[in-house]
Design a protein that fits this description.
The protein is α+β, with helices and mostly antiparallel strands. It contains two helices and seven strands. It has a four-stranded mixed β-sheet, with helices on one face. Strands 3-4-5 form a three-stranded antiparallel β-sheet, covered by helices on one side.
Length: about 260
């Protein structure tokens, strides 16, 4: 019995020793295992990091490609909406109405500018003047000898000449202007008795050159006004005539006698 107990005790001791020894051995080897595990873990983390980077780059590239495709798709969709697809049919987007406003194409025809019309100035007012000494031709025997060579053909000194007039111009103003513009001799005085200018001579033919009743008179539109020529206002379109009379106006239709 004692032997069995002793053997059992020895067996327990041996087992205890083996367990203790095996524990020490495992403790000595544990750092290496731990180092290896740490190294393997670091490598795994590095690989995981690299894999994560690659995955991130691939995701970024995929995202950029997706965005570019979406942008191109939007541009193509926009172009198709405005200009139509290859078949000529317009594809409206889902959020847009089916009817798109027509695109106005620029005109290829040259633009013709209308010429600028110059500002029209108001037309000047004019009247017509005639100067005649035709009555002298029927009274040449009475005409002074030195004046016979200056009588114009037909006795017409000026015919149908238009003179520009202004408001307030008189028959005398028209005569003076016409003679100045045509370089015709004219001589006049102011006569207090008439309160007007008195025409003494036109074209070097004076009063009493063809008898004692000869001289100059005037009419407007075929009528003799009965007042001095510088007192009669003329109007646009009037016809003023200065006529030489050899019989105090009777031979030219002047009933007022001068």
């Amino acid at each position: 019995m004692k032997k069995q107990k002793i053997l059992s005790l020895l067996a327990v001791l041996i087992l205890t020793f083996l367990l203790v020894f095996s524990g020490c051995s495992s403790d000595e080897k544990q750092p290496v295992s731990d180092t290896t595990s740490v190294s393997e873990s670091t490598e795994k983390e590095t690989k995981s990091t690299d894999t994560l980077k690659e995955t991130t780059e691939e995701s970024s590239s995929l995202s950029q490609g997706t965005e570019e495709k979406e942008t191109e798709g939007k541009e193509n969709s926009s172009n198709n909406q405005i200009y139509g697809n290859d078949s000529g049919n317009v594809k409206p987007s889902e959020n847009q109405q089916t009817t798109e406003p027509a695109v106005t194409q620029p005109s290829t025809q040259p633009v013709t500018e209308k010429p600028t019309e110059p500002a029209t100035e108001p037309q000047a007012k004019v009247c017509t003047i005639n100067i005649s000494c035709a009555t002298v031709l029927n009274n040449m025997d009475k005409l002074k000898e030195e004046k016979k060579g200056i009588v114009p053909p037909g006795g017409i000194i000026l015919s149908g000449y238009q003179v520009e007039i202004k408001d307030g111009d008189t028959a005398y103003d028209v005569l003076v202007r016409a003679c100045q513009e045509n370089r015709i001799h004219m001589d006049a005085d102011f006569t207090p008795a008439y309160g007007s200018a008195y025409i003494k001579g036109i074209g070097n033919i004076y009063e009493r050159d063809c008898g004692r009743l000869s001289g100059w008179t005037y009419c407007v539109n075929g009528k003799f006004p009965g007042m001095g020529c510088s007192s009669y206002d003329v109007h646009e379109g009037d016809t003023v005539e200065f006529l030489y009379t050899c019989d105090l106006g009777a031979d030219v239709g002047n009933s007022y006698g001068g």
